[in-house]
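Hi F.,

I've been meaning to write this up properly since the lab meeting, where we talked about keeping a consistent format for the predictions we share between groups. The idea is simple: the sequence comes first, exactly as it goes in, then the structure tokens exactly as they come out, then a line or two of notes. No screenshots and no reformatting. I'm using this chain as the first example so we have something concrete to point to.
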Amino acid sequence: MNPSQEDPDVPAQEVQAQTYPLQGSFPLAIGAAAAAWIVPGLGHLILRKWDKAIVYFLAVAALAVTGLLMRGNVFTASGAGDAFDMLGFFADLGSGIFYFLSHSINAAGPDVSRAAGDNGTRLFATAGVLNLLCVLEAFQIGLGRKPDLREDPREGTHEPRREERPVA
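Output, unedited:
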């Protein structure tokens, strides 16, 4: 039985802590964020957000692998000549495991002399930025700051549903 149904005076935060025991702790948030960076979607998997974990992994993997198969350039820390190269390096590093496997996937090396290679560079960087956004979301969910939008936002409050409101 839902704790809010037992006692209507239980605050909403206590109800959330009772129904979602894996949310609201700083070490969990850091661990979920680190896991989400290393393997896209793993942080959400730890937080029991199964559908988001699958979608995020497939989205980041599709962008990264497509970018590498198009022979896009992967920026490295040693080859950073200016600020834009550093931004490219941090964007690429955000893709986690795909960054470390990029030389295995793209053994032929980059070919940015063609438009496909140049677009591959952008796709791989997009995969990294998307994964960094997923890391941030996993961190927020781990802290308990991001509510699940599929639940009723009025749950745990005394606000009547629209159908239950008196007509004036």
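Notes:
The chain has nine helices and no strands.
Residues 115-143 form the longest helix (29 residues).

If this format works for you, I'll send the rest the same way.

G.
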